[in-house]
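Subject: design request, 238 residues
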C-alpha cells in the first residue's frame, strides 16, 4: 500500500483541495513534507510513511476502499481471528496490504466465493436482507433426491421454526451414487444449505459457493483472489 504519489495528488486524494488548489498551496509555501517546506511541483511522497502538513495541520490519508473476491479453500475460518489457532482467510490476502474483513461467512469445510473488503458500507449492503442477494452453491449431495424432495426445498422447509425462502435448484451431474446440485438462495442462515439437504435426507458431502448475485467465481483458482472493480461490484446486486 505504501506507493509514492505526487504531493498535489496526495493532497487532493485526502480531500484537502482540488488538484489545482493543492498546487497553489504548494507554490505558496504552505505545505511541508516531514517538516520541510516544499514549493516545487511533482515531489513524490509516500502515504503513511511521510508526514504531510498544510499550514501546520497534518493531512491524513483517507484509506482507499477496496474489495476482493477470494476463492476460499477448505480449512480456513472466515473470522478475523481464531482462538483455536486455525488458519484465517485474511492470511490469504496479506499481500493486498490493507485491513480487510469478510462479507458474511462460509463454514470451515466450505470453499468458494468470499468477498473481503475494507468498505463497511458495501458489506452492509451486500448482507442486508432487503437486497435479497442470491448466493449460488454447488453441493455434492449423498444419493439422488427425487423431484418431490427437490420441490420441498424449492418451496421452503421449516428451519428453526421459520420457513426457508424459495430456492432455485438444478441437477448439474451425477457422480456415481451421489449427485452435484446447484442451489441458489438469498438467505444466509447458519449452515443453511447443509441443513436444507439434510432435511430431505440427502446430506451435503462437499460445498462450494460459486456466485454472489451475478458475480461469479469463474476460473479463480482455490486460494487466489482478485480485486473487484466497480463493474464487478454492480454485478453483485444483479
Ligand atoms: N450454507 C452452508 O451450509 N454452509 C456454508 O458455508 C454456506 C451456506
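Subject: RE: design request

Done. Sequence follows.
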Amino acid at each position: 500500500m505504501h506507493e509514492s504519489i505526487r504531493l498535489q495528488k496526495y493532497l487532493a486524494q485526502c480531500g484537502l483541495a482540488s488538484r489545482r488548489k493543492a498546487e497553489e498551496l504548494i507554490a505558496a509555501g504552505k505545505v511541508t513534507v516531514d517538516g520541510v517546506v516544499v514549493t516545487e511541483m511533482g515531489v513524490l511522497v509516500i502515504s503513511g510513511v511521510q508526514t504531510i502538513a498544510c499550514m501546520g495541520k497534518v493531512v491524513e490519508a483517507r484509506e482507499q476502499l477496496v474489495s476482493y473476491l477470494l476463492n476460499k479453500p477448505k480449512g480456513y475460518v472466515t473470522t478475523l481471528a481464531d482462538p483455536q489457532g486455525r488458519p484465517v482467510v485474511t492470511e490469504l490476502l496479506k499481500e493486498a496490504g490493507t485491513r480487510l474483513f469478510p462479507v458474511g461467512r462460509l463454514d470451515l469445510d466450505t470453499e468458494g466465493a468470499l468477498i473481503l473488503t475494507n468498505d463497511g458500507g458495501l458489506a452492509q449492503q451486500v448482507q442486508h436482507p432487503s437486497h435479497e442477494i442470491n448466493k449460488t452453491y454447488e453441493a455434492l449431495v449423498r444419493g439422488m433426491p427425487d423431484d418431490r424432495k427437490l420441490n420441498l426445498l424449492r418451496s421452503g422447509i421449516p428451519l428453526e421454526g421459520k420457513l426457508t425462502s424459495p430456492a432455485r435448484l438444478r441437477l448439474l451431474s451425477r457422480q456415481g451414487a451421489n449427485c452435484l446440485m446447484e442451489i441458489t438462495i438469498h438467505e444466509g442462515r447458519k449452515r443453511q444449505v447443509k441443513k436444507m439437504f439434510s432435511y430431505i435426507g440427502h446430506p451435503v458431502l462437499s460445498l462450494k459457493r460459486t456466485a454472489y448475485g451475478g458475480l461469479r467465481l469463474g476460473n479463480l483458482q482455490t486460494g487466489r483472489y482478485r480485486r473487484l472493480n466497480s463493474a464487478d461490484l454492480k454485478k453483485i446486486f444483479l
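Helices lie at 7-13, 19-27, 120-127, 147-155, 192-199, 230-236.
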